[in-house]
Amino acid sequence: NLGEHAIEQYAGFQYFNWLVSVTFPNFVAYHI
What we know:
Elements: H1 2-31
């Protein structure tokens, strides 16, 4: 189903954005 595939891709994209938003500040804080 194309709709389900799109939802899975969107969910994966949202998870990736969340992961970056969570880990990036810690990465920056650790390296400064």
